Amino acid sequence: MSAAATTARDIAMKGGGYYSKATGGAKDVIDGATTMVLDAIADMEIADNGAIFTMSDMGCADGGTSMAMVGKALAAIRAKAPSRPLQMVYTDLPRNDFSQVFCNVHGLSDAKSYIDDFENLFVMASGTSFHKRIFPAGTLNLGFSATASHYISDRPCNITNHVHMVGAEGAERAAYTEQGRKDWESMLSNRAADMASGARLCLFNFGIDEEGRYLGHTGGVSMFDTFSLLWQRLVDEGAVTNEEFAATNFPQHYRTVAEFKAPLIDEANPVHQAGLRLSHAETRVVRCPYAAAFEEHRDAGRFAHEYIPTLRSWSESTFFSGLSEERPVEERQNIVDRFYDSYETMVRESPEGHAMDYVHCYMVIRKV
């Protein structure tokens, strides 16, 4: 069988409102750092001149995790410039469930929306990757992205011994690092072209912190190693081929803090020359809410039942796409279901140490 290549084009968060409901931790990250966004707005010179003020959530998924922050940010902007029309633009890949974005924004779901709090507000969406230009030159005033820009534009190679670059070695690891470097510089260069003078970017990115911690790898059971272990087990059982295992790679690169900062502080770098400057950077670990709840209720079955959906909400498309397209869709889905069932069984039978703690580098960037 020929295996399907997992590329950034194949990635999509689960739709129908699943993502926001299953990823409480992603909302905790944004809610806990909303003050950074508000401080960035407070630091901006926003003329009350009647011109359109454009804010964006790039890599928005269904928009539910950022809803509270966006409402507070728009209120802060409106307070500084009452006459300016507000344009809120949600962006993500073409496969994204944008219908759920608008259901959330317009109060047609469980998400509490800001839509009725503002007049002269216009909400739009763009199915354009943040690896490309999104806005007309000089029109983006406040850009925001959380838990998204670790996705690279393409896989540079297969990872033969793992499913994620954090487990890759040698030339394969180096290839992902180089792809991540190029994409980060390109992403920032595109935003520099999009941004108006004096605009801000607030980026909360998955990465590797100063202690070597990253998503699901903060002590205890390592999440990505468990992904790889259980996917390999299906190979050993004959359900997945070696070729399919090799084709199952997350198109992601987790950058170190130094890698995040490099194009912004190197005066010879095109990003720096385009006018982007680093105003603030820090790392934080946000506790997995399901693991934290388990520490209180101690019900392993409940923990496993609540924990696996948050992993599945963002990872399922990678495992599904790694399977051969020659397999019927139903067969591929059954294999993926079997994979997540095995993870849930593992957590239920031995829950200690499992957690998807969030490790982010929080950055505020200005255009001079």
Describe the structure.
The protein is globular. The chain starts with 17 loop residues before the first helix and ends with a strand. Mean pLDDT is 94; it is low at 1-15. Strands 1, 2, 3, 4, 5, 6, 7 and 8 form an eight-stranded mixed beta sheet that branches. With 368 residues, it is of the alpha/beta class. Strand 2, helix 5 and strand 3 (121-126) form a beta-alpha-beta unit. The protein has one domain: 3-Layer(aba) Sandwich (Rossmann fold), CATH 3.40.50.150. Helix 3 packs parallel to helix 4, helix 11 packs antiparallel against helix 12 and helix 12 packs antiparallel against helix 13. 43% of the residues lie in helices and 17% in strands.
The residue ranges in which pLDDT falls below 50 over 5 or more consecutive positions are 1-15
Structural class of the helices, strands and pairings? alpha/beta
The CATH topology label is Rossmann fold
Name the helix and strand elements from N-terminus to C-terminus, one letter apiece: HHHEHEHEEHEHHEHHEHHHE
Strand tally is 8
- CATH-level-2 architecture: 3-Layer(aba) Sandwich
Helix fraction bin: 40-55%
Provide the domain count.
1
Rg for CA atoms: 21 Å
CATH class: Alpha Beta
CATH superfamily: Vaccinia Virus protein VP39
Can you count the helices? 13
Shape type: globular
Distance between the termini: 53 Å
Percent strand: 15-25%
What would the average pLDDT be, to the nearest integer? 94
